[in-house]
Every structure is written in structure tokens, then in C-alpha cells.
Automatic annotation (TrEMBL):
Cofactor(s) of this protein: Ca(2+)
Alphabetical UniProt keywords: Calcium, Disulfide bond, Glycoprotein, Hydrolase, Metal-binding, Signal
Signal sequence region: 1-15
Cofactor note: Binds 2 calcium ions per subunit.
UniProt key word Disulfide bond: yes
Lineage, highest ranks first: Eukaryota, Metazoa, Chordata, Craniata, Vertebrata
Stated name of the protein: Paraoxonase
UniProt catalytic activity: an N-acyl-L-homoserine lactone + H2O = an N-acyl-L-homoserine + H(+); a phenyl acetate + H2O = a phenol + acetate + H(+)
This enzyme's EC code(s): 3.1.1.2
Organism: Ceratotherium simum simum (Southern white rhinoceros)
Gene: LOC101404821
Short name of one Pfam family: Arylesterase
Family: Belongs to the paraoxonase family.
């Protein structure tokens, strides 16, 4: 009888795992092939060869680009390259990238930049906040941007027990920011099976100030990109595994109230907002299985969506760029500035388009 019970439980467990694996393949769009949508005036950005995972653009048109991310489970095509922050002036007719110099006292050898966000103080000083993964841990680094010297002065490293597996960040005040946790387990492969395959919703959004750190939204499968509306009233959060964007109202005490969820049908990574229109631009992965099982002969594609009328009952969703990986692999972010589009990737190149 005991052996029969064990076999029955084992069979049920294997059946559950099998069902979850099938469901997981559907969630990551494992069979999807992207249809190309490529504007005519696009070209690869020279000098961005090893990733451009996140991009943030100042009102002046200066774009900060994080490059060289090493993330568990993702391809690493340049293991000897150090993480860098690049600058690109989108006002130029043919903009070039330049790697920013960093303080000598900052540990550049372990710099592993992920999500980034800028903040402009009352005296017009520009600060860059960077999610960093030294030794695969999570910190937030604060830099002061020196425009004339094209350099970053390191000011502070922020660590906290809730700042684990941090993916992205949006700064809303001096040393005040929202951040996303993309997996609960700090071990990626445990998270992949127990959280993603089993479809657990354990990740969250937190709010940080030096005086208080708190979880302000939870129940995400994998909270990823985060940004804020131009009027500063709403926070947008991408849940990559659930293929959607959560729209949340921001309160005076920094808490968030869920308002709506926009389903996209593709695995959305980082988000940006067009300051002129309020439209959300999303860098997406049309088929994440091709990222997890990287094959240069059949590489992961890229996809950029634009979401208009975000707060309406029927937001308008359009594909602005899509490629099967022949040009751009693993798109993670898209930003626009005065009719110009810049698309970054987790580990590959970047594309610049004049729309």
C-alpha cells in the first residue's frame, strides 16, 4: 500500500511538472516568430557592441546608456568587457556614443549595471542612479554627472535587505526611488523553476528613502521595468512573465494603488515615457525561450511597442519596430526624443532610428 501511495504521489508530481512546463513554454512565447516591422531610417549604433540594457534621456536630449550587464541565464558574448555607462547626444545629426569616465575611488572592475534613472535637482545638478550587481548582489549607486568633463562622480552606494534581485529603478526625489524586484530567490535557476515555471507571484515594487523602505505593490510574476508618467501621478510597472503593464496611482505617502493592467501578448522589459505625448514605449522580447536557450544561428528577436491613451478604457497598442534577430537581438528598452528612436538590448547592439 505504501509503495502504491508513493508511486501515485510521484505520478501526480510529474504530471504537475509536465503541465507547468507546457504552460511555461506558452508564457515565454516559445513558438513565436516575430514579423518584421522596420522603419526606413534605422542603423546600428557604432560603439555599442556589448549591450545597452537601459536608457534614460534628459530633457536636454542627452541619453545615458547602461552597457555590459551580466545577468544569470542570459548570453555573455564579451566576458572580458567591463560594465560602462555611455552618453549619446540625440540633438546631433549623427549622434555618437562616448563612455563616461568614473571616479577613481569607484570599483569599476565589479561594475555590472542594470536599470538606470536620472534626477535633476533644484540647482540643475544631474544625478544618475544605477542598479548595480557586483558579485551578482544588488546595490543602487548614485553618481553626479559632470557634463563638461563627461564624467560620473560616485557619491554613494545604497544597500538594504529589501533591495535584492533589483531590476529597474525610477527616481522621484533626492535619494527617493521606486525599484522592482524581478525574482524572489537570489538564485536565478531556483527562481526560474520554482517561481517562473510554477507561476508564483512573489515579486514586488518597493519605495526607498533613507528614513523608510517599504513594499508598495506586490503579486507580480516578475516585476521588471518601471517608470513614471509626465505629470508624476502614475507609476507604470512591467511584469515580463505575465506580458503586461500595471498602471498604478501614486499617493502623497508614496503608496501605490492598482488602477488597471494592459495586456500586451509579448514579454515586456523596460519602459519609457514620451514626455511630449505621455505614450509608453516598451522594449520587448517576442520569444524569451530564444534568450534562455541562446543559439546564434536562431537568435532572439526584438520588438518595440508604443502604448497610446494609456489611461483610457481602450489604450492603443502598436508595433513600432520588430526584427527577427538578424539585426538586433534581445531588445530591452526603447526611448524617443523629438522624433528619434533609440532601441537597446540586454547583451547585443543598439539601433537608432529617425521616425
Amino acid at each position: 500500500m505504501g509503495k502504491l501511495v508513493v508511486l501515485t504521489l510521484l505520478g501526480a508530481a510529474l504530471a504537475l511538472i509536465g503541465e507547468r512546463l507546457v504552460a511555461f513554454r506558452q508564457r515565454v512565447n516559445a513558438s513565436r516568430e516575430v514579423e518584421p516591422v522596420e522603419p526606413q531610417n534605422c542603423h546600428l549604433v557604432e560603439g555599442l557592441e556589448h549591450g545597452s540594457e537601459d536608457i534614460d534621456v534628459l530633457p536636454s536630449g542627452l541619453a545615458f546608456i547602461s552597457s555590459g550587464l551580466r545577468y544569470p541565464g542570459m548570453p555573455d558574448l564579451a566576458p572580458d568587457e567591463l560594465g560602462k555607462i555611455f552618453l549619446m547626444d540625440l540633438n546631433e545629426k549623427n549622434p555618437k556614443v562616448q563612455a563616461l569616465k568614473m571616479s577613481d575611488d569607484f570599483d569599476k572592475a565589479s561594475f555590472n549595471p542594470h536599470g538606470i534613472s536620472t534626477f535633476i535637482d533644484k540647482d540643475h545638478t544631474v544625478y544618475l542612479y544605477v542598479v548595480n550587481h557586483p558579485d551578482l548582489k544588488s546595490t543602487v549607486e548614485i553618481f553626479k554627472f559632470e557634463e563638461q568633463q563627461r564624467s560620473l562622480i560616485h557619491l554613494k552606494t545604497i544597500q538594504h535587505e529589501l533591495l535584492k534581485s533589483v531590476n529597474d529603478i525610477v527616481v522621484v526625489g533626492p535619494e527617493q526611488f521606486y525599484a522592482t524586484r524581478d525574482r524572489y530567490s537570489t538564485n536565478f535557476f531556483l527562481a526560474l523553476f520554482f517561481e517562473m515555471v510554477m507561476d508564483l507571484h512573489w515579486t514586488y515594487v518597493l519605495f526607498y528613502t533613507p528614513r523608510e523602505v517599504k513594499v508598495v505593490a506586490k503579486g507580480f510574476s516578475s516585476a521588471n521595468g518601471i517608470t513614471i508618467s509626465p505629470d508624476k501621478k502614475y507609476i507604470y510597472v512591467a511584469d515580463i512573465m505575465d506580458k503586461n503593464i500595471h498602471v498604478m496611482k501614486k499617493h502623497d505617502n508614496w503608496d501605490l494603488t492598482p488602477l488597471k493592467v494592459i495586456q500586451l501578448g509579448t514579454l515586456v522589459d523596460n519602459l519609457s515615457v514620451d514626455p511630449d505625448t505621455g505614450d509608453i514605449w516598451a522594449g520587448c522580447h517576442p520569444n524569451v525561450m530564444k534568450l534562455l536557450m541562446y543559439n546564434p544561428q536562431d537568435p532572439p528577436g526584438s520588438e518595440v511597442l508604443r502604448i497610446q491613451n494609456v489611461l483610457s478604457d481602450q489604450p492603443r497598442i502598436g508595433t513600432e519596430y520588430a526584427n527577427n534577430g538578424s539585426v538586433l537581438q534581445g531588445s530591452s528598452v526603447a526611448v524617443v526624443y523629438h522624433g528619434k528612436l533609440l532601441v537597446g538590448t540586454v547583451f547585443h547592439k543598439a539601433v537608432y532610428c529617425v521616425l
